[in-house]
Amino acid sequence: MSTALRDKNLESLDGQEYDVLIVGGGINGAVSAAALAGKGVRVALVDRGDFASGVSSNSSNLAWGGIKYLESREFLLVNKLCRSRNELMRAYPATVKEIRFFTTIQRGFRFWSFFVFLGSVLYWLMGRCKTRAPRYLSAQAIKKLEPEINTSKAAGGLEYSDCYLYDNDARFVFSFVRRALDLGCVAANYVSLDEATPRDGGWDCRLRDCESERSYSLRAKVVINACGPWVDSLNTMLGVQTQYRHLFSKGIHLIVDRVTDSRRVLTFFASDGRLFFLIPMGPKTCIGTTDTAVSDPSVGVTDEDRKFVLDNVNQLIDLREPIRPEDVIAERVGVRPLAVTGSQGATDWVQLSRKHEIETNQELSQISIFGGKLTDCLNVGDEVVAAVESLGVVVPKPKAVWYGEPRGSIKALFMQQASQLGLDEMTDPGSSEPLSERFWRRYGEAAFQLLDRIRERPESVELLIEHAEYTRCEIELTARREMVVRLEDFMRRRSKIEQVVRADDIRGAPGLAEASSILFGDHADLRLDEYLKTLD
Question: Keyword Iron-sulfur: yes or no (predicted)?
């Protein structure tokens, strides 16, 4: 059952002392846990919801160097993000992949189209030329290469490269949680920090299991607040005053059936002046985003949000029929937590950057992580280790490598065994890639367990849910290793099934009940009923 690992970890938390307690299992908390555990620090990680259930599962699924920050002349930030993107490409070649961006500049835009192209050349140079070079496009060339683009008002455009996450953002975040677990971290989702009292240079903490309501206590030398948009509210509870705080920008994406056959990210400037994307997602397209100032991180998609996205895509793309609200398969919504100083306002809202800030309170042995984005996650991990060390915690293995896919020899061995098994010949005809590539990217060394299972039971390679690329043996592995507490955790975050399959098709999927049975055993019916209600 999926909860066995979690139950074991909860028992390991109770009454113990840790070097560090991390609160928040989004990208900042996940990389902090992986970095600290990898360097030998005794660390615990908790999240009051599921891992990556907030901002980190509602991004554009891009790992990019921040080309838009060239306009605001934040060259140091762009340089840092480009280096981070390059390192992600190097460390995670199966997951973080280069993709071409196809940008159309409309007549009357605030910059001449060729000037924007020159900016992309600068961006490529700042990225150490690790991607394919950009090129300038006339309006005629745009129409020839991408016939669906409406070029009636186009002055020109450009094509350049950045990166995207092949699976989804939440899956990428969980890979760091899983790495932290493998390195000795004790982690549990659906666990709330209800009370933390500073005492004798550390913290006495009381945790609550949000499922059973049982309380646990532990002591930590350092508490790290990695709660994303809720950093400020947790700091208020802890009695910690900080120089930084958050402003919130709401962003939404709509997922529809594939709009074009393009394998590029089609990029425009929307009617509000910000970048607007059509991002390939297998047989689907992810469209967005918006940029709306909000005061509360708990947000939803409004009719106005949908209208903005659909109006822009229908104006920018020549379609036989306009995309309508009923064509939307799924929605993604979250806030961007923007780090600002206490006195800073939102005078240039769209220009506020996603750079992170790590603030250390030496007196209370507490660290807060503000802002941030997926692209810069490896820097966050390293900087958190340095901050923890500055608070007097011994880091036993300072030079240990804590991230990246397993070394090439392990992958070569997996591919050899997969070939001997004939794994790729078992791939479902409707799948977007061979099983060997998919298994390796999602599970790394744990993918060997899938080969063993298929040898024992060849039928375990069958897909359980139509249009969803998850086999029976993968769900069995997920039940053992991925701490799925609710069916939504699997359908929305460990996988992206809920984002690419319509709710009606999910309800009627014959394999859904079997997946629930594999994940939850005797509690399968309860969890299935609970999940189906969320689809209404």
Answer: no
d(CA 201, CA 191): 24
Residues in the chain: 536
In this structure, what token pair is assigned to residue 158?
Answer: 């450009």
**Tokens encoding 470:** 């998850």
Confidence of residue 132 (pLDDT cuts 50, 70, 90): very high
- Dist. CA 532–CA 143, nearest whole Å: 44
Q: What is d(CA 190, CA 149) in angstroms, rounded to the nearest whole number? A: 45
DSSP state letters, 150-161 = --TTEEEEEEEE
Q: Which helix (H) or strand (E) holds 112?
A: none
Q: Is the peptide bond before 471 cis (omega within 30 degrees of 0)?
A: no
CB 348 within 8 A of CB 361: no
Give the whole-angstrom CA distance, residue 341 versus residue 118.
33
Decide: 511 and 491 in contact? Cβ < 8 Å.
no
Q: Which tokens in the block code for residue 44?
A: 């615990």
DSSP strand E in 342-389: where? 357-361, 366-370
The answer to whether 169 touches 374, Cβ cutoff 8 Å, is yes
Q: What share of the chain is helix, strand, coil (3-state, %, to 5)?
A: 40, 25, 35
The DSSP output letter for 214 is -
* pLDDT confidence tier of residue 337, bands split at 50, 70 and 90: very high
From 1-5, 462-466, 498-502, the region with the lowest mean pLDDT: 1-5
| Collapsed DSSP state (helix, strand, coil) of residue 487 | helix
Q: Is 434 exposed, middle or buried (0-12, 13-18, 19+ CB in 10 A)?
A: middle
Query: d(Cα 462, Cα 469) in Å, to the nearest integer?
Result: 10
The tens digit of pLDDT for each residue in 241-283 reads: 999 999 999 999 999 999 988 889 999 888 777 788 999 988 8
CA distance 183 to 41: 10
Tell me: the pLDDT tens digits for 183-201?
999 999 999 999 999 999 9
| Tokens, residue 275 | 């970048």
DSSP string, 462-485: SBSSTT---BHHHHHHHHHHS---
Closest alpha carbon to 101 in 347, 266, 320:
266
Q: State residue 348's pLDDT score.
A: 53
Take residue 23 and report the two structure tokens written for it: 């609160």
